[in-house]
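Incident log, support desk, overnight shift.

02:14 A customer reports that sequence design results differ from what the structure should imply. Their input is reproduced verbatim below. On-call engineer (initials T.W.) acknowledged and began investigating.
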């Protein structure tokens, strides 16, 4: 998925679910099959596949079918988009807080 097409709202929606965050946490350790992801979550493979579809649409995860096994791994594009979004907002808030600090220092 190209980074330019990543929707930040989809990213936050995808990460807003604790099961999807658990899947992302597991995949941060390395690729895993859908059945391996389902085992510790105590949910069905079908439910994991539905969560993976949301994660894949958001650009956070990529799945590839190899024979009868669907292998999943982290996709950098979604995380890069999140990092940019957070960086832009952090810079704005740092600037605002610096201005507030200047105003408060001027009042002393």
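02:41 Re-run completed on a clean worker. Output:
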């Amino acid at each position: 998925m190209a980074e330019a097409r990543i929707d930040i709202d989809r990213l936050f929606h995808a990460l807003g679910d604790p099961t999807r965050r658990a899947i992302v946490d597991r995949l941060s350790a390395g690729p895993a099959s859908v059945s391996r992801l389902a085992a510790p979550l105590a949910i069905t493979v079908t439910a994991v596949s539905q969560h993976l579809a949301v994660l894949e649409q958001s650009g956070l995860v990529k799945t590839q079918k190899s024979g009868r096994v669907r292998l999943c791994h982290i996709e950098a594009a979604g995380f890069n988009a999140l990092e940019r979004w957070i960086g832009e907002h952090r810079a704005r808030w740092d600037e605002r807080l610096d201005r507030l600090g200047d105003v408060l220092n001027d009042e002393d």
